[in-house]
Amino acid sequence: MKAVNKVDGRAFPLGLKNVDTDVIIPAHYLKTISRIGLGKGAFETIRAQPGNVFDDPEYAGAPIIIAGDNFGCGSSREHAAWALNDMGVEAVIAPSFSDIFSGNAFKNGIVTVVLPQEAVDRLLEVAKTDPIHIDLENKVVTTPYQDRFAFEIDDFRRNCLMNGLDEIGLTLANADRISAHERTLAQSQPWLVPVAA
Amino acid sequence: MATKPRTLYDKIWDAHVVDQRDDGTCLIYIDRHLVHEVTSPQAFEGLRVAGRKVRRPDLTLAVPDHNLPTTARVDAAGSRLPIADVESAQQLAALESNAPSFGIKYIGATDREQGIVHVVGPEQGFSLPGTTIVCGDSHTACHGGIGALAFGIGTSEVEHVLATQTLQLKQSKTMEIRVEGTLGFGVSPKDVILAIIGKIGAAGGTGYVIEYTGSVFRDMSVEGRLTVSNMSIEGGARAGLVAPDDKTFAYLKGRPMAPKGEQWDQAVAYWRSLATDPGATYDKVVTLDAADIAPSLTWGTSPEDVVPITGVVPDPMSFADPSKQAAAQKSLDYMGLVPGQRMQDIEVQHIFIGSCTNSRIEDLRAAAAVAKGRKVAANIKQALVVPGSGLVKAQAESEGLDKIFIEAGFEWREPGCSMCLAMNPDKVPPGERCASTSNRNFVGRQGPGSRTHLVSPAMAAAAAVTGRLTDVRELMA
Ligand code: SF4
């Protein structure tokens, strides 16, 4: 997974509360075979509205979404994180996130930044005209106007994001132990390797 | 120092811990990974994107089942027939190309060994006692019937297992479900598990791994144990277990992927050592008396909504819990039933004999024994018999079971998940009712608006020939 130290750029000033996984990616995109390409279905219902932020050329290709409370609520579908990834979103700023979504986002290298509503309101304002800067190393969000909002993030997750470690990468860091277990098994339970049929 | 007595679950768990974190999370080694077309495409894609390999392709087995139509797969000339649903076809094609490109053994749609993953695993001797088995399907608990610790996982875990052959897990609590006595006439393993879920509730096993003990399970065939363990998840438990014994060994011996020769003897000696030690304790114990279990079925939209066939549709107000009262009322509205209605008066339009719960040879024999010499009732629109695998199908045909079913008016299909989950063309239309040997009676499970009554194979056959839910004992007398 790509290492993320900072996310820099324009942000979609979405602002909505309770953006659920059905809004992020509607159910009819679920019978897919790829996590790539889901971006085209992302926020389909919002995009159906004229003048929506996602189709505004001002924000084209923005790597950040700023939203209201409880972002990512609803089903556990990992497709929501895949869809954001596919549309190039690297971070979401909101006052709160659903647990399952933030877990899925983390697994897919997306930074979830929790800030108080006042800070989010200020960032929504700035985002209309200027870029936002998320500094993961120093745990702070800044703007070109001297705004400075510190945020908290689990050290384990921050470390993983900054080093580009996904869960599989972390487990593979333990590959020696896995190999040792396999060597023991080959001795104690040799029948575990299936007979080639 | 004497070691602390351990349960079957503890022994399997302990033998698979690769590493332990401070918070108690363990890295658990996975001995067997079954892969099907629905939950695997994005996992393979993830590997490809990250440039990773499958760590142990030799411990992985892929077979399509969920999306495959159960109608003929080849034409008269032997050419593969196309699959009409574009997305199903894509998922199936993805598995067909992913498996070989990652070096995984693949049983194809037209191979004799093809079937439902949970039927194929034990049948091929791929699933073995004392192993950890995972699959991206919640009914993986099935393999617990041969004494394996088996559970369902999601797509990102599928990718994790493919890449690392391990999973991060926390140890579960243990629950003993003991059923002593002798099952009455016409009472099958399906009735036993329905009665158990009716007793503990659909969330009763949450956080637990169940071990089924007592004379009923000792006397039960391996096929029956697979049926019981399969539905552990419907009682909320992540996995179920039956201690492996001589019946298990006899069932597995000589299977294509089972150990052979000296290794077989070594394996059996090890498997014998897995049984729960005398004096080991479980976190919870539930007991049932075999004599109290009747042929059973569901009336609602949760697998805990169980009554004996001689019973009536319950009054929602009879439940103590107000949230259950509301849920029961909603279920009855959905099911189109009224309190007090006799279960045996309920007409059905569809019959489904199949699914990983009840599609093994013994299930088909039990259904055929009822169907023999009888005719599917006029009000039945469709009666499907879907063997769990090509080998089950071949065995049934060699015993003439297919003829019995066809003469009675059933359709005899190709193996697959079929009407268990409405992902392939086999569906129950809205508002219509199905006596089904599958494992879930959720809203819309067999198709939007479908109404499901979970029953045993013999009860499904009985419903087919009378056109209504029926006490199979009356037909067998
Ligand atoms: S038969 Fe049903 S429960 Fe079993 S594997 Fe197929 S879909 Fe899952």
CATH homologous superfamily placement of the largest domain in chain B: Aconitase, domain 3
CATH class category of chain A: Alpha Beta
**CATH homologous superfamily heading of chain A:** Aconitase, domain 4
Tally of separate domains of chain A? 1
Radius of gyration of chain B: 22 Å
Strand adjacency order, main sheet of chain B: 5-4-3-6-7
Give the rounded overall mean pLDDT of chain B: 96
Low-confidence stretches of chain B: none
Number of strands of chain B: 19
Evaluate the radius of gyration of chain A. Answer: 20 Å
**What count of domains describes the coordinates of chain B?**
3
Largest sheet of chain A: 4 strands, antiparallel
Would you kindly provide a written description of the structure presented here, covering whatever features stand out?
- The complex is a heterodimer of chains A (197) and B (477).
- Chain A has one domain (6-165): Aconitase, domain 4 (Alpha-Beta Barrel), CATH 3.20.19.10.
- In chain A, 33% of the residues lie in helices and 14% in strands.
- Chain A contains eight helices and eight strands, in the order ββααβαβαβαβββααα.
- The longest helix of chain A is centred in the last third of the chain and has 14 residues, at 175-188.
- Chain B has helices at 8-14, 41-50, 86-101, 117-123, 155-164, 189-200, 215-219, 222-230, 246-252, 261-272, 322-335, 361-371, 390-398, 401-408, 457-466, 472-476, and strands at 17-20, 26-29, 32-35, 60-62, 105-106, 132-135, 149-152, 166-169, 173-180, 208-213, 239-241, 284-289, 296-298, 306-308, 350-353, 382-385, 411-412, 433-436, 451-454.
- In chain B, the strands form five sheets. A five-stranded parallel β-sheet of chain B has the order 5-4-3-6-7, with helices on both faces. Chain B has a five-stranded parallel β-sheet with strand order 17-16-15-18-19.
- The longest helix of chain B has 16 residues, at 86-101.
- The A-B interface holds A 1, 31-36, 76, 78, 82, 104, 107, 166-168, 171-172, 174-175, 177-178, 181-182, 185, 189-195, 197 and B 18-19, 27, 29, 31, 41-42, 45-46, 50, 52, 55, 58-59, 87-88, 90-91, 94, 105, 124-126, 128, 131, 154-156, 159-160, 163-166, 168, 256-260, 263-264, 266-267, 270.
- Bound molecules: iron/sulfur cluster.
